Amino acid sequence: MSSKKNWKDSFYKKLSENGYDQEEIEVLYVFDMELQAYFDFSDIMPKCLKLQNKIRDESKSREIRYYWKSHSEEAKCPFCGMVSNQPCNDYFTKPIQDIPRDNLIVYHEVTFKRYFCENPDCKYERFVKRFQEFSEENARKTVRLKKYCIERALGCGCNHAAEELQAEGAVVSHDMIMEYLKAEGAHQVEENLKKDNVRVLAIDDINLRKGDKSSGCTVFIDAQTHKALIIIRGTTKEAVKKVMEKFQSVEFLSRDRASSYSSVGKECGKIQVADRFHLIKNAHEVIRETLMSKIPAQIFIRDGDGWVQETQGEDDVKKARFHVPEQIIEDKIKLAGLSEYKAKIYRNTLEMLELSDKGLRSADIAHKLGLSLDDVRKLRRSAASTLENVRNRISERLEYVTNNTNSNREISEKVPGRRAFKTVAGPGAKPARESIVEPYRETVVDMWKAGGNHRTIHPVITEQGYTGSKNAIYQYLLKLSKEEPENVVCKTEKKSTPKPWEDKFDSELAESLPDLSLEKVSRDKVYRNILREASKTRPKSDSDKSEKAKPDSKTYENSKSQYSKEIWELIHGAELKEEKQVSDEDKAKAIQKKTT
Length: 596
Known about the structure:
The chain is of the alpha+beta class and about 600 residues long. Among the domains are: about 5-140, no CATH class; about 195-280, Nucleotidyltransferase, domain 5; about 405-420 and about 435-500, no CATH class; about 550-595. The protein has 22 helices and 13 strands. It has helices at about 5-15, 20-40, 145-155, 160-170, 175-195, 235-245, 260-270, 275-295, 325-335, 340-355, 360-370, 375-380, 385-400, 405-415, 440-450, 455-465, 470-485, 505-510, 525-535, 555-560, 565-570, 575-595; strands at about 5, 50-55, 65-70, 75, 85, 85-100, 105-115, 125-130, 200-205, 215-220, 225-235, 250-255, 270-275. Helix 4 packs across helix 5 (about 175-195) and helix 11 (about 360-370) packs across helix 12 (about 375-380). The chain is flat, with a radius of gyration of 47 Å.
């Protein structure tokens, strides 16, 4: 059985079997073709093209072919524009691919008529009628298939779009889709340059490659519609002026602070407006410069302090407010119980802060303290944590001394065993249920008073019917020690031994000493601020001015561009001019070399 399905043969066969004669079948077939053409292809097919037949092949080719024939009586010559009414007996047929359907390739086999040109001055005697709304000249794909490929490529890229379309049944490649994109872009740029309703034109510069100044380009944007009009190579005054002359309807020019754009706006007589971004940027820079001129380079903040820098009289002498007397330092070391090594770090940290407050650099501080530069940097990084550790150590000792005889400590001494009594109960805690040991309360209390513990009590009450564990008895004893401390009897009473520093600790002195603390700032944040401020004051060197790379030799004929020659020269004008200057310099050097 053949895999090809001919619609015309199947239609004639079915109707003839039902008793229709040949003339009736032909009339019905024409009517059926018109209906199919109307419902499926009325938006792309001209009315003069009539559908004749369709064949579906689901074998290896997997395609559907629609056969069309032109019934027009006149055509316009594409070369001279004269309308001709003299058709030839010759025809021209070519397959045109359309959007796939049911994972099958769709072709339109169109038979075009040829006409004689009635213009005697036309150099072409015959021509083929063309349907630009259906398919472009010399194209093998419909206009809507090209648009469909462009939409898919804009969404996921040319390579991925080509794979998806091939899976659907279309015969396309990523190179072909890329050409469609370039052609559509060239057409859009040409249409943009013909616009006469652009009132506000915005100009800005970009780099095609990040950090590469040789790839600088200028972007022209319609500020009212926020759509790009054209992008040209270079940011020179001459290149920008050529494009500005194309937009005669422009009244306002929105630009940044580039001098080339400003001079072009003056020469073209446009009203220049600075865009909002650069206005805010200018104001931000002025405010920052004003603040940074008043704020010192290094700041250490203490609790309750304002700025750590003051002025005195007309001499503008700085005061060091971060100064801790020697007696307070020794008292804090003594109260915190610091070792000799940690006490040395604490003293060096305070001296470093005092010298930093005077405005000394790290190298000068290292020279004064007799330390290495790395040690001073370590002291800077750990200054806040060093002061905080000493403060916490003193506060912990002070709290221990004041609360030396708390209730938790007394209970822990009375409870038998090594575990201390702990209770955790919040405001929403549920009432505890009756313990499993409660029925044997009298036996447990008597044995506990006699010196027993949960291990010796367990076998006795087990004989009385207790089924719980030893831990339940232990928890019950803890509960009794809290509720009825008079029933608690210990085998040995624990005596709390005082800490070795407890007798020497002066609580009044610890409370009277001033608090020393620094605000903690992450090192990354400080580093970012340093880089941000340093980059603004760094002088520009010759190495920062990167030389522009020499562009490759380009001509319109070798570029194979989709743009017209005028627009191509407009876009690449800066590169061509630079290349010409370089070539002239090379020629001059060659002539000078020959003469010498």
